[in-house]
Amino acid sequence: FKVTRRAEWRPRGGGGDNRTGVGPRSSSSSSSSFQAKVPVVDALCALFPEHYETRRQAKNDCRKKLVMVNGRVTRCAGAVDVGDEVVVVVRETIATDVSAHLPDSAKKVLRTLKVKHEDDHLAVIVKPQGFGTASAGGGYDNANAFLPHLLKPTGASTEESRGAMHRPRPCHRLDKATGGLLVCAKTSRAMETICDDFRDRKVRKKYFAVIRGLLPRDAGTLDTPLDGKPSTTEYVVEHKFKRNGEQHAYVTLTPKTGRNQQIRRHLAGAGCPIVGDRIRCPGAKEEGGEMLLWACKVGFRHPITGEQIELESDPPEHFYIAK
């Protein structure tokens, strides 16, 4: 359901801010130096100070069409005048069994999904291989579609979290062929903070891969630029072995930048494609099977408590092909 908070825009008396005319509803109706119109973002920060700590948060709600002025949705470029009514819609999660309407095939998938960590603000799930992170369609072929059915409703207060989102959402993406740990947010504040941390490379990620071929050293860095941008992946060779007469290895990898398919492209560029990569590993398309790349570790600062969260997920048994 939706929680709506309202406030009227009125001029304030002597205690007001005469530079902008901002302020909550007041019994005073006269101010000689009151500036009539102010940007809607400034108005939101003044009318709802406990809801918007920064102008960026107010802009985000405008972009999401959660702000109305006089009954009409307004965007970031809007303005608020004397006497206008400003409405902010706060989305909250419905605490009901939202899985009841799922088709039987989707219910079977839901029972296989695992949650590694969950609290009122965020969750970390294990995304299966061959399963997208999100999809523009309405099917149940991606993790995002199952989050409202898999996770519990948030119990966080609006003041603490800036409100629950309409539904939980992933904070980043894993390729469809890549399985492993996926960080998801339940509240607006968690979503904003975690996405910022991913963008600023503050989230620690580690992957496990099975490669065909041998890297030049047992530990090193792959730093070939990708898409015309600096790109860095650190690696450690954990185990070398032969399979069908060819050299293979188990490798753990830490991407220091976030280019599209960075790990897959760096390894293929070094002559050691990931087993099962149907684009870059010769014969993989004909052989079939899953690509052997797994997001095995993730670490980040909790957006509300500041606690350091470190989680691990072991790859499935079919990754261990050494014999």
UniProtKB/TrEMBL annotation:
Taxonomy, superkingdom: Eukaryota
Region (Disordered): 1-34
Alphabetically ordered keywords of this record: RNA-binding
GO molecular function: pseudouridine synthase activity; RNA binding
Keyword RNA-binding: yes
Keyword RNA-binding: yes
Positions of the Pseudouridine synthase RsuA/RluA-like domain: 121-268
Biased composition (Low complexity): 19-33
Biological processes, Gene Ontology terms: enzyme-directed rRNA pseudouridine synthesis
Biased composition (Basic and acidic residues): 1-11
Annotated family: Belongs to the pseudouridine synthase RluA family.
Protein name, UniProt field: Pseudouridine synthase RsuA/RluA-like domain-containing protein
Organism: Chloropicon roscoffensis
